[in-house]
Amino acid sequence: MKYAVLGAFGQLGRDLCPALGEGAIALDRSKIDLGVPETIGKCLEEINPDVVVNCAAYNFVDKAETEPDTAMRINAWGLKELAQWCKAKGKYLVHFSTDYVFGLDSQRNKPYEETDKPGPVSNYGISKLAGEYVVSANCPNHLLIRTCGLYGVWGSGGKGGNFVETMLRVAAQGKPLKIVSDQYCTPTYTKDLALASALLIKSKAQGLLHITNQESCSWYEFAQSIFELSQIEASISPISSKEYNAPAARPGYSVMQSGRSKELGFAPLRSWKLALGDYLQERKAKHLSD
Fold it and tell me: What CATH number does the domain containing 248 carry?
């Protein structure tokens, strides 16, 4: 099997390619740019993969408030071209989406399942939900994986880091940190997500699935655990979303669980805190070897 992996050099793609094995073909934006649709068919025709896996996205949440057209061009319209190519060629398309398709229900305190209606509160979330719709409408042979709060040792290519790396960097500078304490989610380790996704892809799972580490926390609680497990003393205090006043609204509660994974016979991922501990160990080992 040949797997064409778009966004292969981001933090998820870097872990997903090894999980898929020797058949994975790593593609970066120089090969396929979803913002430039004519690059899609040209590259894929040459590769002729059995499976197309999209890890690429416009993921600048705040910037999307002033660049909605750019977010839609990449996260929806470029994806439409990809989905139509896959349908025309009889290929299996796998696409990763986000918990940011939720948030409209401000009273929510129960994990979202695949059957719950989405309702985004930001331009980024709208563009990602539109991407889900164009995949399902244009390529019946597809798998959509929603996930949440990704972090991995390769960092987030376009953003130049992830939440864990940001916390450790700022703490090392001795700066005080104010972290939002009223947004709840499930931080997810890219290595865990990659291994689970590879199993789903190889089994040709269809439709929509939620895949995250288990349990939940606020971003403030996540930061506390980062410093606790790293044995770092940091000046950290909680702040509300309103006080933080980010350009883009975030879901107050976007914890997800998967009834469909159980139906398909796949075990849930481990808790986010166990995953974080392993991430910090992997990160330490990588830094020592660099």
Answer: 3.40.50.720
